[in-house]
Amino acid sequence: MIIDRDEIDSMEVLKFGVSSLASAEAMQRVRDVLVARRTKQRIVVCSAMGGVTNSIISLGLKAANGDAGYAEDLEALRRRHIQTLDDLQIEEAAEVRQELQDRFDRLESLCKGVCLLEELSAKSMDQLVSFGERLAVPIVCAWLEKAGLQVRRVDARDWIVTCDQYGAAEVHQSETFERIRKGVDADNSFETLITEGFIGRTPTGETTTLGRGGSDYTASLIASAVQADFLEKSTDVPGLLTADP
Ligand code: ASP
Ligand code: MG
Q1: Whose CA is nearest to atom 6 of ligand 1?
Q2: What pLDDT is attached to residue 99?
Q3: What is the position in ligand 1's atom list of the atom closest to the CA of 132?
Q4: pLDDT at position 31
Q5: What is residue 235's predicted lDDT score, i.e. its pLDDT?
Q6: C-alpha of residue 52 to centroid of ligand 2, in Å
Q7: How many other β-carbons are positioned within 10 Å of the β-carbon of residue 186?
Q8: What residues have their beta carbon closer than 5 A to ion ligand 2?
Q9: d(CA 217, CA 231)
Q10: Cβ-based neighbour number of residue 9 at 10 Å
Q11: Selection from 155, 131, 136 nearest residue 84 by Cα
Q12: Which partner for 195 in 2, 66, 84, 156 could form a disulfide, CB atoms 3.0-4.6 Å apart?
């Protein structure tokens, strides 16, 4: 569906947190929220599915201890993501399934390297945990497309520029704002734009994270950059909180 810009009464930024993405059931509520308000153009910031960031951290630490048991935990994560896809009955799933598979393969290679070296730097840990969000976004995207929404996807690392303080990287705000604004304007016909929370990239191309819970921060950066009418953030309790960005 092509949006007539005159019909859009506002731009909003919505952040869906871990609990909104915890299961297929929770994701059905996400879809309902978005479908109910189609006249608004919005940017959706996703965090990882519930518990995934913690799981990646602990399997990474396991690998760093030379414990090959990380592979089982990784397999459980893979099954959980694929199961969510199945539960959502996404018909066009072949492509997104392949994409998830590719990402899991990459994550597995990284973990293998960590396990062989028995070494896990903060920089490598950021690469590992970035997969939490990067595995959630393809699923949410396919899910919203299935619901008939026109979705544009952006890799948050193309927008969020940070220093190299891995694990708690500081955002270079003016460059980030500029990239967000240019990025939105480059193709402004979207109905829903989806991107990852929590992750960024250094000017030299290394993946970083903004600190635990950092998706909220990503959402507020985007809301400020585009001067959104409001920022809405899902919480662990049923319902939505709103705040003026
Ligand atoms: N997934 C990250 C975390 O668990 C970021 C977030 O959820 O906001 O900390
Ligand atoms: Mg959070």
Answers
A1: 213
A2: 95
A3: 1
A4: 83
A5: 58
A6: 12
A7: 9
A8: 17, 213
A9: 11
A10: 11
A11: 136
A12: 156
* Residue that is written with structure tokens 């935990």 in the block: 73
Q: Cα(168) to centroid of ligand 2, in Å?
A: 15
At residue 10, the pLDDT reads: 73
d(CA 53, CA 61): 12
- Rounded distance, CA 175 to CA 101, Å? 33
What per-residue confidence (pLDDT) applies to 108? Answer: 98
Alpha-carbon gap, residue 123 to 137, rounded angstroms:
22
Give pLDDT < 50 ranges for the chain: 1-8, 236-242, 244-245
Q: For position 3, what pLDDT does the model report?
A: 42
pLDDT score at 9: 52
Strands 199-201 and 207-209, bridge-based pairing: antiparallel
Specify the long-range contacts of residues 81-84, CB closer than 8 Å, at least 24 apart: 81/49, 81/135, 81/139, 84/23, 84/24, 84/27, 84/49, 84/139
User: Who lines ligand 1 at CB under 6 A?
Assistant: 17-18, 47-48, 53, 132, 197-198, 212-216
